[in-house]
Amino acid sequence: MDLTIRPATPADEDTVVRFNAALAWESEYKTLHEPTLRAGVRALLADRHKGFYTLAERGGAVVGQVLITFEWSDWRNGWYWWIQSVYVAAEARRGGVFRALYDHLKAAALADPTVIGLRLYVETDNARARRTYAELGMEEEPYLLMGLYPLPGREAAFGE
């Protein structure tokens, strides 16, 4: 059955929340604070400046999602699109869902002259995901991700 790739709308909020909660559990064994997650998804769906979700449907059911957020590069005078919140429903895995989403987003990025690259971060021990991304032409970059999260005093806001 063919896949349909489309932008998410506010009507997809429950699905995106469900997929993100499943992603957090499956990838990091984290249970996300549902009110915070829902508010974050709702805020993004309402404001294209924050990013956008793209969904894959098969037979009218959403089977995959990808979130794109933006990073401006002053060095390169263009946008990186960050691939985030990648999730494919268990029953649809190994069926080309992520590849279809990636191909769609890569074509959209290529069509926009202000976009200079695609990036994502992946768990270092997730060999299967790393192989998948490499097969799509992505390469490891010479950077190590570092962060300060949550900011001191904000732990309670995220239910952590």
Per DSSP, the total helix count is: 4
Q: Give the helices and strands as they follow along the chain.
A: EHHEEEHEH
Q: What is the helical fraction, as a range of percent? A: 25-40%
As for the CATH topology, it is Aminopeptidase
Strand arrangement in the largest pleated sheet: 1-2-3-4-5
Structural class: alpha+beta
Average pLDDT, to the nearest integer? 94
Would you mind describing this structure in some detail?
This protein has 160 residues and is of the alpha+beta class. The protein has one domain: Aminopeptidase. 33% of the residues lie in helices and 26% in strands. It has four helices and five strands; from the N terminus they run βααβββαβα. The protein has a five-stranded mixed β-sheet. α1 packs across α2 (34-46). 19% of the residues are buried.
SSE order and pairing:
Blueprint: E1 3-7, H1 13-28, H2 34-46, E2 52-58, E3 61-73, E4 78-88, H3 97-111, E5 115-120, H4 127-135
Parallel strand pairs: 4-5
Antiparallel strand pairs: 1-2, 2-3, 3-4
Concise structural overview:
The protein is an alpha+beta fold. The protein has helices spanning 13-28, 34-46, 97-111, 127-135; strands at residues 3-7, 52-58, 61-73, 78-88, 115-120. The protein has one domain: Aminopeptidase, CATH 3.40.630.
Features:
Aminopeptidase, five-stranded mixed sheet, alpha+beta, 160 residues, single chain
